[in-house]
Amino acid sequence: MLETSLAHRLLSLAPRRLAGTVALALPLALAACGDDAPVDGPDAGDVGCTVPNAMRLQPMVVGASWTYAISEPMVPARQKTSTIEAYEDVGDRKAGVMGYRQKTEKLDGVTVNWSEDRCTSLVRHREKSYDLSNVLLADQFYQPSKLRIDETAAHIATGAAWTVSFTEIEVNPTTGMAITISKDENWSVVAASESVTVPAGTFTALHLNKKTSGSADKDYWFAAGVGKVKETGEQTEELTAYTIP
Q1: For residue 221, how many other CB atoms are within 10 A of its CB?
Q2: CA torsion, ordered 138, 162, 97, 48, to nearest 10 deg
Q3: Which of 49, 51, 169, 222 could disulfide-link to 57, CB 3.0 to 4.6 Å?
Q4: Cα dist. 88→62, 98, 99, 102, 239 in Å?
Q5: What is the pLDDT of residues 1-45, one digit of tens each?
């Protein structure tokens, strides 16, 4: 079968570490594998993805962690660490949706989000924000979901551009009142394959730009088998260390 032979060939492109340099192949979308599904729609739900993590632009596996150095004009340098803690029901307004719970620890508090792996995309369903005393500040839900990364062949090619619309629902944990905001995200591929160097090494990455209505203009670099290695916009984040079990 053609898909099987492609998978075997791509598996031979496993990550190699040479003197601090990471050489990684960008993923190819195996649309005929039978385990892919659209980002949202009638076929949404748990997907048994068979594409290996070494080919994914944002590997999702319990125990994976990423540490980033954060820099911003006129602000002291700091860092954050993000860890996937569990695979579970998202709960509340998203009960019945299975997702990966990811905890991000920063100097000013903690965020916990739940993302669903759609095999050729990763979408976020919920995010909770806490202060340093572990007091819940906000609970956000995304309907139908918020795109994190789209790995379909059409959206990893240089020059590709598309728009994603969703509704953000922010629930006040004290009053239970909700604020609803409709948002549009305009995505584009700046480069399908670009070398980027950060403290964790040199990577071959997919360079994306995202413009959100009423919000910031951001650029992201994702490396296959690693995840996000760099982000720029309101602040700059650069990968300093990572673990993918």
Answers
A1: 25
A2: -140
A3: 222
A4: 11, 5, 6, 11, 27
A5: 433 333 333 333 333 333 344 444 444 443 333 333 444 443 444
Residue in 113, 115, 88 with CA at minimum distance from that of residue 103: 113
pLDDT at position 134, please?
Answer: 94
Q: Pick out the chain residues at pLDDT < 50.
A: 1-46
Q: Which amino acid is at 243?
A: T
pLDDT for res 169: 98
Q: How far apart are the first and last CA of the chain?
A: 30
For the chain, what are the domain ranges? 18-29+52-243
Q: What is the pLDDT of residue 216?
A: 82
Three-state SS string across the chain, please?
CHHHHHHHHHHCCCCEEECCEEECCCCCCCCCCCCCCCCCCCCCCCCCCCCCHHHCCCCCCCCCEEEEEEEECCEEEEEEEEEEEEEEEEECCEEEEEEEEEEEEECCEEEEEEEEECCCEEEEEEEEEECCCCCEEEEEEEEEEEEEEECCHHHCCCCCEEEEEEEEEEECCCCCCEEEEEEEEEEEEEEEEEEEEECCEEEEEEEEEEEECCCCEEEEEEECCCEEEEEECCCEEEEEEEECC
Confidence at residue 50, expressed as pLDDT on a 0 to 100 scale: 83
CATH of range 18-29+52-243; options 2.60.40, 3.10.450, 2.50.20, 1.10.10: 2.50.20
Q: Give the tens place of pLDDT for each residue, 160-172.
A: 999 999 999 999 9
Task: Give this prediction's pTM.
Answer: 0.82
